[in-house]
Design goal:
The chain is 43% helix and 13% strand. Helix 3 links the parallel strand 5 and strand 6. The longest helix has 17 residues. The protein is globular, with a radius of gyration of 18 Å. The protein starts with 11 loop residues before the first strand and ends in a 6-residue tail after the last helix.
């Protein structure tokens, strides 16, 4: 398992890393600098190749190089790599591509576009889990996939040996509470929405896979650490401070705003791959104002 062993329990702050581009190509120098910045800020794990990383528009050689870069600069932190597609064959192919390139954990999204029923979702994830010894994190994000994974399905899958957690981005707090109420020991729930991190952790969640921490990793790390230690006054103060950033990161489709913010900070070029385009001028100005606030970076 590389940097993690069989007793590993996933918790804390993971950053869903953007993929910087320059003149149409992946900017590996900028990506490495972003990883270094996250490590220095004290994040708990790294998440390249998610939706924030524009992975559907990456070539296989780019996926390999980004994974290797993250693994080489992770400072001993686990690297959770997005591999999910809407095809079992293609998801397994992605796992094979990256399993020896530095991936410690696989993040697998509910199959999108196909709109499977709950039985199909469960059978798909069991089949994926059977193809690897590495830990798997489920990813439920109905706004992107077109189908919600119900709590009963999540809890059924939580009994699978190497399915260790879920990134819950349904936005449905009662659903997330239902998972938390009956989750087996060792299976953790991570928020998939920055603005629900505190609420989910107060209910028993273990952390967040964050978009906003691309911009403000130290503050996000402080929020998650405070919530985990029971310092709710401190966590609530940081949550209030970060809320404008949380909201602004989703004014347009992710990762359009967060890339604008990072560009305003001088960390990357403000470049995306079609069908995503750069943000509207008012979004850029909003992000520029937020990232210019004292202490946000």
């Amino acid at each position: 398992m590389g940097r993690i062993d069989s007793s590993f329990i996933l918790r804390g702050l993971g950053t869903a890393l953007v993929t910087p581009f320059r003149d149409g190509k992946v900017d590996y120098e900028a990506f490495g600098a972003l990883v270094d910045r996250q490590v220095m800020a004290g994040v708990d794990f790294l998440v390249p190749l998610g939706s924030t990383g524009e992975t559907p528009c990456l070539e296989d050689d780019e996926k390999v190089a980004l994974t290797e870069c993250a693994a080489a600069r992770c400072g001993g932190r686990p690297v959770m790599v997005g591999v999910g597609t809407n095809s079992l064959k293609h998801t397994v192919r992605n796992m094979r591509l990256l399993e020896d390139r530095g991936a410690d954990i696989f993040l697998v999204v509910v199959p999108y576009y196909n709109k499977p029923v709950q039985r199909g979702i469960a059978e798909y994830f069991r089949a994926v889990a059977s193809e690897t010894d590495k830990p798997i994190v489920l990813y439920n994000v109905p706004s992107r996939t077109g189908v919600n994974m119900c709590p009963e399905t999540t809890l059924e899958l939580a009994g699978t040996d190497n399915i260790i957690a879920i990134k819950e981005a349904s936005g449905d707090i009662p659903q997330i509470r239902a998972i938390l109420a009956d989750a087996p020991d060792g299976f953790t729930v991570l928020s998939g929405n920055d603005d629900q991190t505190l609420e989910i952790m107060q209910a028993g969640g273990a952390g967040v896979i964050s978009v906003a921490s691309n911009i403000a990793p130290r503050l996000m790390s402080g929020l998650v650490s405070a919530a985990a230690s029971g310092d709710m006054d401190g966590a609530e103060s940081l949550n209030e401070r970060l809320m404008p950033l949380f909201k602004a990161c989703f004014i347009e489709s992710n990762p359009i705003p967060v890339k604008a913010g990072l560009a305003a900070m001088g960390l990357i070029c403000n470049e995306l791959r079609l069908p995503l385009t750069t943000c509207e001028p008012e979004t850029y100005e909003k992000m520029r104002e937020i990232v210019s606030a004292p202490g946000i970076s």
